[in-house]
């Protein structure tokens, strides 16, 4: 039925717009379905409702096609492009598949050769480098910690040096942390002596320790150092530079460190005394005026004494002796508290009851032909630093007195200064370094004076002993007041 109807309608399919005829029912199921539907409609329906239904369906189809083209035109264009290149892509894919098939045997041979070359049992430089790289990657955290050790050590040393002015607990803990880091680095150097990395870290740590040693030595030269701070610094120096604390034979336990301590404290004393430079300049001016006055007196026939000054020199010597007394006692007491000498008579030997014995000992050592220096036994222990230090201290004071004391012509002022020297000698004498006989060697202080300085010194000692005897008599009957029997230095 559908075929007959199709043959009947074929002449009417050709239209003026040139559209093609639909396919036959045998070729298209849609055509067969529509022709079967037409056969069921009446003639009135075919004339009235069917054209309207076809127009509505056509319009709906056109709208749907427009919406689809608006929504998916890019996909249509891409599909069209791909479709246009499909003729060339398929042959190219075929050629590349053939090449891949031909390369598979060669790839298999290369894989077998690689497996044979880089097996775990074979010795290969590339494998060794890879193993080292993998080991380095696994231990990168440990290596970074080791590399940070010199930086941490330098930071600890610099921060401790910055905080050393206050000498607080923070500085102590920081120096202790720095020493612990240095000990850890030395332990690593002992465990891995052939490692270039550890050697480099150790060399940087040595530089940091040199800076720490410099800071500690500078700290020992600071003003008014306390016993606790000095003991901490000496303890740190013993750990940083153990070679300074070496002992040999019966040498003192302080070693070179004791000499270093005395040198630093002596430098501090000298710098403190140099602060008196304005007063010393005035005293030098009085010395120059006194020298000029002496020359005028020698050239004058009248012989009148025109020199009656010396007040500035008196001020300078008073302040000088006060600083000398305080600092010398502090230096020796700190040394004995820190280093604890083994021989109790070392300082007494250094004192030698005064400058007369010191000068005699020096002359005997340098001028005596019967005991040349080369005959000394080289195996004997070196003397302790404290055995020669008071000699230098006494010479320092003696030179100052020899230079400036002749400027003071007033008898009471000279007695006051000599009394200060006496108290200074007594203060140091409590530690075994009494030099109360020092001025007996200064008889040439003022050759033009009728009274020699040695006699003045004897008079001062005689008055001091008389005063001490009276005080002892006054306090002998009063037990609680016995502690006041000590004679203290007068306040000038």
From TrEMBL:
Protein name: Conserved oligomeric Golgi complex subunit 8
Subcellular location, record wording: Golgi apparatus membrane
Organism encoding this protein: Penicilliopsis zonata CBS 506.65
Chief site of localization: Golgi
InterPro entries: COG8
Membrane topology according to the record: Peripheral membrane protein
Keyword terms: Golgi apparatus, Membrane, Protein transport, Transport
GO biological process: intra-Golgi vesicle-mediated transport; protein transport
Keyword Transit peptide: no
Chain segments carrying region Disordered: 284-307, 473-492
GO CC annotations on file: Golgi membrane; Golgi transport complex
Family indicated by similarity: Belongs to the COG8 family.
